[in-house]
Design goal:
This protein is an alpha+beta fold. The chain folds into two domains: about 325 residues, no CATH class; about 80 residues, no CATH class. The chain contains ten helices and 21 strands. Strands 2, 3, 4, 5, 6, 7, 16, 17, 20 and 21 form a ten-stranded antiparallel sheet that branches. The radius of gyration is 56 Å and the shape is elongated. It starts with 6 loop residues before the first helix and ends in a 15-residue tail after the last strand.
Length: about 450
C-alpha cells in the first residue's frame, strides 16, 4: 500500500485519470493545435431516395460489423434544408472498396425492403461532398462526442426525434464511424487496469492507535558476608665480600753540581708505583610464600509485582473521491472487456449550420437524446468552432474526407482525436431512421409515427 502522504505519486495518477477517463480536454479543443490527417482513400456515396420500415433494425448491425472487418470508414449524412431532407450514406476504403460498397448496398436493401437506393459515381460523390462540406456555406461547426447507448425499445430512435425537435431549421448532421483495431482496445484496457491498481492503494488508509501502561513495584534485600584467611612468609639472605690493596715505591736521589763559572745545575730522579685491588662478592637470596583463602556468603531475597494495561484501536479511513473514481474506472473496464471481442467503431457526430445557434443546439439535442443516463462512463463533450476561427476551413475539409478531427496536446505532444468507442448496435441507434415509406421530397408532409423496435 502506498503512503497516503505521497502526494506527488497521487497527483500523477489523478492527472492520468483525467486524461484517460475524464477527457476534460475534449471540452477545450480550441486550446489544442489542429493536426490534419492523411486524406488518402476513395469515398463512394449512396443516396437514399426512399427508406421503408426495416424488417428488424438489429439485423443491420451485421452489415456494420462486416464494414468494420473490412477496416472501412462509414459516414452518414443528414441534410435538412428548406423543409426537405437529403440522406446519404458513404464508405471510404483504401482497399476492398468494391466489397465494402456491395456489403452496404445489399445490407440496406435486405434490411429495408422496397427502399430506393442510388449509388453515385466516384466523381458524383466527390462533387456532393465538396458541396455539402463547403466552408463558405456555414457559420459554425459543432462536435458532439457521446456514446449513443440510449437503445431502449420504448424510446424513439435518436435521429427521428432529433429531426422532430429541430423542425424547420437548416443544418447538416454528419455521423462518422471508423473501425478500431482490437489490439488498441486491449492495450487501452491494460492501461486502465494498471491505473485502477495504482489508484486503489490510495482509496483507504489504515490507522492503528496503541496505548500501554505498565507498573512494576519491586522490593529487594541483599546480605553479604566475606571471610578471608591468609599466610605470608619472606626470607632474605645476603653476603658481601670486599678487598682493596695499594702498593707504592718512590726513589728520589738528588745531586747538585755547581761549577764555578757555570750556572747552578740540579738533577733529580723519582719513581712511583701504585697498585689497587678491589674484590667484591655480593650475594642475595630472597624467598616469599603467600597463601590467602576467601569465602563470601550472600543472601538475596526480593518481591516483585507487575501490572500491565494495554489498549489498541484500529480504524480505516476511506477516501471517497478515490473510491468514486475507482467505481467509474471499474464500469469502463467492465464495459470495454465485455465488448472487446466485438467489432468496435471510433464514433463522432458533427453538426454544421449557417446559424451558430442551430449548430450548437443540434449538437446538444443529439447528445441529450443519445446519452444513456444510467451509463456513468463519459461525456457528453461539446465543442463549437465559428467561421472566423483560422482553422475553420481546415476542419470542414477534414470531415469532407471522412477523417475525425485530431489535435496535438502540448507540451506532452499527445495526439487527441474527438471520438468515442462504440459497438455496431450503438452505431445503429444513430443510423436507424424508421420513417414508414420515407421520401426525401415529402418528409415534412408525411405523418411521422413512432415505431417500437421489435
Amino acid at each position: 500500500m502506498h503512503n497516503p502522504r505521497n502526494e506527488s505519486l497521487l497527483d500523477e495518477l489523478l492527472n492520468l485519470y483525467k486524461f484517460l477517463v475524464n477527457k476534460e480536454y475534449l471540452n477545450n479543443l480550441h486550446n489544442l493545435t489542429f493536426c490534419p490527417s492523411n486524406k488518402a482513400g476513395s469515398i463512394i456515396l449512396l443516396k437514399i431516395e426512399m427508406l421503408t420500415e426495416p424488417l428488424s433494425p438489429n439485423f443491420f448491425s451485421f452489415v456494420l460489423d462486416t464494414l468494420g472487418d473490412l477496416n472501412g470508414v462509414f459516414g452518414y449524412i443528414l441534410q435538412s434544408s428548406h423543409h426537405k431532407l437529403t440522406f446519404y450514406v458513404g464508405v471510404k476504403a483504401a482497399k476492398s472498396m468494391g466489397t465494402a460498397l456491395d456489403v452496404l448496398k445489399s445490407g440496406l436493401i435486405s434490411s429495408y425492403p422496397n427502399s430506393e437506393v442510388r449509388e453515385l459515381s466516384l466523381e458524383e460523390s466527390s462533387l456532393i461532398l465538396a458541396k455539402v462540406f463547403n466552408p463558405d456555406s456555414y457559420q459554425a461547426l459543432s462536435s458532439a462526442i457521446v456514446i449513443p447507448n440510449n437503445t431502449s425499445s420504448s424510446n424513439t430512435p435518436i435521429n427521428q426525434k432529433l429531426l422532430e425537435l429541430m423542425n424547420k431549421e437548416d443544418f447538416v448532421a454528419f455521423f462518422l464511424a471508423s473501425s478500431c483495431i482490437g489490439d488498441e482496445i486491449k492495450c487501452f484496457i491494460k492501461e486502465l487496469e494498471d491505473l485502477y491498481t495504482e489508484l486503489s492503494s490510495f482509496s483507504q488508509t489504515e490507522y492503528e492507535l496503541t496505548h500501554s501502561f505498565a507498573k512494576n513495584p519491586s522490593t529487594q534485600i541483599s546480605k553479604s558476608i566475606t571471610e578471608t584467611d591468609g599466610t605470608s612468609c619472606t626470607v632474605t639472605n645476603g653476603i658481601t665480600n670486599e678487598c682493596s690493596t695499594t702498593k707504592g715505591i718512590i726513589i728520589a736521589p738528588l745531586a747538585v753540581v755547581q761549577p764555578k763559572d757555570l750556572p747552578q745545575l740540579s738533577l733529580g730522579l723519582s719513581y712511583s708505583e701504585t697498585s689497587e685491588i678491589d674484590n667484591t662478592n655480593d650475594r642475595s637470596v630472597a624467598e616469599e610464600e603467600c597463601k590467602q583463602y576467601a569465602v563470601t556468603k550472600s543472601n538475596l531475597s526480593g518481591t516483585s509485582n507487575t501490572t500491565t494495561d494495554s489498549k489498541e484501536i484500529c480504524f480505516t479511513s476511506e477516501n471517497k473521491s478515490i473510491t468514486d473514481r475507482l467505481a467509474k474506472l471499474d464500469t469502463i473496464i467492465e464495459r470495454l472487456s465485455s465488448i472487446s471481442n466485438e467489432v468496435l467503431f471510433c464514433f463522432g457526430a458533427y453538426f454544421l449550420s449557417s446559424s451558430k445557434a442551430t449548430s450548437i443546439r443540434a449538437a446538444r439535442t443529439y447528445a441529450g437524446l443519445a446519452k444513456d443516463k444510467t451509463l456513468n462512463i463519459e461525456g457528453p463533450f461539446i465543442t463549437m468552432w465559428e467561421a472566423d476561427d483560422s482553422i475553420f476551413p481546415e476542419l470542414i475539409e477534414e470531415l469532407r474526407y471522412f477523417n475525425h478531427l485530431t489535435f496535438v496536446m502540448t507540451p506532452k505532444n499527445k495526439c487527441i482525436t474527438n471520438y468515442t468507442l462504440i459497438t455496431s448496435l450503438e452505431l445503429l441507434n444513430s443510423f436507424y431512421f424508421p420513417y414508414p415509406k420515407w421520401n426525401t421530397s415529402s418528409l415534412y408532409n408525411t405523418h411521422i409515427r413512432n415505431l417500437t423496435i421489435k
